[in-house]
Design a protein that fits this description.
52% helix, 150 residues, mainly alpha, 7 helices
Length: 150
C-alpha cells in the first residue's frame, strides 16, 4: 500500500482557506489569527514536500531540547546574564557529548577532575592543552563512552 502525504496537505490548506474566507471565524479572533498565519506561511510549511532533507515535523529538535526545558525550573542561576551564560555552556557541552556518543554524567565527571590539573598558579588553562578532553577525542576513558549495541 502506497501512502503519500501530498493530497492530505492540499486538503488541509484548502480547508484552512475555506475557514478563513467564511464568516464563521472572526478574522480578529485567535482562531482567525491562526488561520491567517497558516495561509501566510503556506510556502514554508510545504517545503518538506519538495525537499526530502526537510523533516515533516520538528520532533528531533523537540527531543534535543527536552532535558533543557525540563531542567530549567530547577536551575536557580538563570536570573543573571552570567548564570544564563553558564547554563548555555553546560547545556552545549552536554549536547555535544551526546552527539559524540558519550555519557554526559561520566564525561562531566572526567573533565571536572582533569581541568584543575591543567591550571597554572593563577588558575588559567592553556587552551592548546585541551584537545584530549574534547568529546571527539580518542583518548577519553571507556566509562565516558556509551556501550556499543550489538
Amino acid at each position: 500500500m502506497t501512502f503519500t502525504i501530498k493530497p492530505m496537505v492540499e486538503e488541509f490548506f484548502a480547508w484552512v482557506k475555506q475557514q478563513a474566507s467564511d464568516c464563521t471565524v472572526p478574522p480578529k479572533s485567535k482562531t482567525g489569527h491562526g488561520l491567517n498565519f497558516v495561509i501566510n506561511q503556506e510556502k514554508y510549511l510545504r517545503i518538506f514536500l519538495e525537499d526530502g532533507d526537510v523533516p515533516i515535523n520538528n520532533f528531533a529538535s523537540e527531543r534535543a531540547i527536552r532535558t533543557f526545558c525540563l531542567g530549567k525550573k530547577n536551575w536557580m542561576f538563570h536570573n543573571t546574564a552570567k548564570g544564563a551564560s553558564a547554563s548555555a555552556m553546560v547545556y552545549s557541552i552536554s549536547e555535544t557529548a551526546k552527539l559524540n556518543n558519550l555519557r554526559p554524567y561520566y564525561y562531566f565527571k572526567y573533565i571536572l577532575t582533569e581541568l584543575p590539573k591543567l591550571c597554572d598558579e593563577r588558575g588559567n588553562i592553556d587552551p592548546t592543552k585541551l584537545d584530549y578532553l574534547m568529546p571527539w577525542s580518542d583518548s577519553l576513558p571507556d566509562e565516558c563512552r556509551k556501550p556499543r549495541r550489538s
